[in-house]
């Protein structure tokens, strides 16, 4: 009999791709998802969801719904979360309830039953600023940029003497620096899972996802991944809005690679009780990816608008060192960035997106979270 996997949040972007992969690999899949209107505006299960998966509509904070979803389940992949740095800075109780309380409810239910494996989705946001190199070659963990520096429009990281730092790939050994409510939530989620997993003998792995992109992203959610936000703007023939000077660097990893990483985490015999970076191992500037997406989407005339503003909780640079994931999980990204962008652009054809970016930005500004 096939092993049954419960995916919390499985009707979403990453979860739906993981569902397809697990079903193809011979697993039985059950999904617990509350179909949040911010992700699913019509309140219905998305048409891309695999019909061979069992969908249970319920909230991860609801003990009864979680108990029901866990019945006869062998493995759990915990993806359910409220996602977004900006929104987390004012919907503090909402984010903490879903991300932290929801995880606690799930774990409490798991302690009363056998579970062969628990995989928790964490985030690169737990690092805050990524590692950097001083002019003398020394590697440092940069401090958060002070507000007075940002108000002057001096965006780059500096050492204590005011000299520029060069960003380098960030490994799992970097100490967390939690610069937003969302980052704090995700760190709490991963630690809860690892601590409870160890105490109750549940083999647990946490995966720190970097910037995930690809088909099925929630285009009408102004707090989702930056490529989805840019896509929404382009679909509405509006310029993507880029904060600071656009030269901040991130790691973009295709959703199919992320799904493969989850499958590897379910099967690995090494790395249990540990965290792993899941990224591409490459860095790109935000302004360049806005330009690249416009080009492949057939909107090269729509240049990104660099705002020169900054948001509370944002960091300058962070991209993944994936050496540990390669060695212990056997993870290797397979989707080249340009290929992934072209696939995303193909999916965008015929999609309709409600552009809520201006409203979201105005809300942040009203609360003093954009300057």
Q: Kindly report how far apart the N and C termini lie.
A: 57 Å
Q: For this structure, what is the CATH class?
A: Alpha Beta
What do we call the CATH homologous superfamily? Answer: NAD(P)-binding Rossmann-like Domain
User: Mean pLDDT, rounded to whole units?
Assistant: 93
| SS-derived structural category | alpha/beta
* CATH topological fold name: Rossmann fold
Q: Which helices and strands, and how do they pair?
A:
Blueprint (H helix, E strand, L loop, with lengths): L3 E5 L4 H12 L3 E6 L20 E4 L5 H8 L4 E4 L6 H4 L3 H19 L6 E7 L8 E2 L5 E2 L6 H5 L14 E2 L13 H20 L3 E6 L1 E3 L12 H10 L5 E2 L6 E2 L1 E3 H13 L7 E4 L5 E2 H11 L8 E2 L10 E2 L4 H7 L7 H12 L8 H10 L5
Parallel strand pairs: 1-2, 1-4, 2-3, 4-5, 5-9, 9-14, 10-13, 11-16, 12-17
Antiparallel strand pairs: 6-7, 6-8, 12-15
Helix pairs in contact: 1-8, 2-4, 4-6, 7-9
Characterize the structure shown.
The strands form 5 sheets. Strands 3-2-1-4-5-9-14 form a 7-stranded parallel β-sheet, sandwiched between helices. By secondary structure, the protein is an alpha/beta fold. The protein has one domain (4-366): NAD(P)-binding Rossmann-like Domain (Rossmann fold, 3-Layer(aba) Sandwich). Helices cover 35% and strands 16% of the residues. Strand 6 (132-133) and strand 7 (139-140) form a beta hairpin. Helix 2 (63-70) packs across helix 4 (92-110) and helix 4 runs parallel beside helix 6. The model has no long low-confidence stretch (mean pLDDT 93).
């Amino acid at each position: 009999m096939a092993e049954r996997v419960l995916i919390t949040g499985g009707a979403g972007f990453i979860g739906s791709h993981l569902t397809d992969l697990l079903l193809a690999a011979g697993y039985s899949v059950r999904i617990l998802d509350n179909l949040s209107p911010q992700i699913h505006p019509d309140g219905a299960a998305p048409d891309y969801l695999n019909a061979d998966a069992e969908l249970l509509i319920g909230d991860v904070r609801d003990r009864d719904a979680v108990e029901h979803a866990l019945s006869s389940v062998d493995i759990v992949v915990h993806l359910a979360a409220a996602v977004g740095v900006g929104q987390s800075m004012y919907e503090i109780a909402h984010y903490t309830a879903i991300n932290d309380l929801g995880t606690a409810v799930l774990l409490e239910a798991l302690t009363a039953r056998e579970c062969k494996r628990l995989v928790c989705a964490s985030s690169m946001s737990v690092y805050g600023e990524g590692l950097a190199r001083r002019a003398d070659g020394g590697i440092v963990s940069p401090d958060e940029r002070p507000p007075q520096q940002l108000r002057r429009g001096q965006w780059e990281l500096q050492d204590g003497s005011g000299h520029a730092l060069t960003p380098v790939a960030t490994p799992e050994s970097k100490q967390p620096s939690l610069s937003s409510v969302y980052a704090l939530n995700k760190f709490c989620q991963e630690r809860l899972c690892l601590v409870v997993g160890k105490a109750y003998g549940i083999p647990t792995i946490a995966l720190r996802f970097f910037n995930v992109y690809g088909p099925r992203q929630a285009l009408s959610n102004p707090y989702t991944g930056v490529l989805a936000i840019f896509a929404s703007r382009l679909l509405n023939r509006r310029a993507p809005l880029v904060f600071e000077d656009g030269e901040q660097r991130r790691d973009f990893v295709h959703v199919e690679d992320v799904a493969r990483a989850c499958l590897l985490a379910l099967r690995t015999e090494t790395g249990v009780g540990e965290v792993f970076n899941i990224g591409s191992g490459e860095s790109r500037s935000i302004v360049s990816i806005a330009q690249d997406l416009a080009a492949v989407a057939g909107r090269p005339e729509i240049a990104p608008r660099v705002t020169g503003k900054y948001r509370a909780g944002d960091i300058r640079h962070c991209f993944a060192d994936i050496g540990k994931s390669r060695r212990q999980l056997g993870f290797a990204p397979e989707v080249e960035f340009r290929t992934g962008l072209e696939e995303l652009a193909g999916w965008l054809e015929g999609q309709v997106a409600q552009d809520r970016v201006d409203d979201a930005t105005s809300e942040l500004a009203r609360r003093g979270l954009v300057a």
